[in-house]
Write a structure and sequence with these properties.
eight-stranded mixed β-sheet; 18% helix; single chain; 4 helices; alpha+beta; Nucleoside Triphosphate Pyrophosphohydrolase
């Protein structure tokens, strides 16, 4: 059975907004609080373990890893995200975390995330402090993704790989950890139900101009799982 692709997610109507859920308290979004939470994680099951049925069930699942980089700015933590270039085979043009497929020489998921981050955006490992991981997330394109969460010391200079990354930008972590900004989309296509989350953000691009960023799909789902993890008592 072929799973329909979503080619224009912004055209899918909003089915609901989770403004009935509380934001993660600000004191839990501090670097030391995050270190402690990942050092002693609560018993917890992720709300969204994956996208659902794969586009191509015959394609063998591929292990992958992404970095969830939390940049320690003076005004609070910022999530570093990338916009993928339009010509890529998988997730073209989408907003994502830096990361990619596991290579045979990678020691573990952390090594993959660090290597891919350095290759894609030039963020050197000396600025990165890995504090933990979230449960794996399986994408509709067949990737089994381990999200590696890290604190990032400012002072770095990005060197973007223009083949894979069109742009890198930052979004305040408190914004993403506020469910009032989490929108649910649900629709039927070719007789099949599809649904996804989005977290639209209006930021400033590299030229200093206002720009709308549509965070959705796997990236939004992994951020929602981070919200669930940090919301646990």
């Amino acid at each position: 059975m072929t799973v329909p692709r979503i080619t224009d997610p912004q055209a899918i109507p909003v089915d609901g907004v989770d403004d009935h859920l509380p934001p993660v308290p600000v004191d839990r979004l501090q670097p030391q609080a995050l270190r402690l939470r990942f050092a002693a994680p609560p018993a917890w099951v992720p709300e969204i373990p994956g996208d659902g049925a794969r586009f191509n069930p015959q394609r063998a699942p591929a292990a992958a890893s992404v970095l969830v980089p939390l940049v320690m700015r003076e005004h609070g933590l910022q999530v570093l995200l990338t916009m993928r270039t339009a010509h890529l085979r998988d997730h073209a043009g989408q907003i994502s975390f830096p990361g990619g497929r596991v290579e045979t020489h990678d020691a573990d998921a952390v090594a993959t995330a660090l290597r891919e981050t350095e290759e894609e955006v030039g963020l050197a490992r000396q600025h990165i402090e890995v504090i933990g991981m979230l449960p794996i997330y399986t994408t509709v394109t067949g990737f089994v993704v381990t999200p590696v969460v890290a604190l990032v010391q400012p002072g770095f200079s990005l060197q973007i790989d223009a083949f894979e990354v069109a742009e890198a930008f930052e979004v305040p972590l408190p914004f993403l950890m506020t469910p009032a900004h989490h929108r649910r989309h649900r629709f039927e296509m070719s007789g099949q139900q599809r649904q996804f989350l989005s977290m639209p953000w209006q930021g400033v691009n590299g030229e200093g101009r206002p720009q709308d960023y549509f965070i959705w799909g796997a990236t939004a789902a992994m951020l929602r799982n981070l919200y669930g993890f940090l919301s646990q008592p």
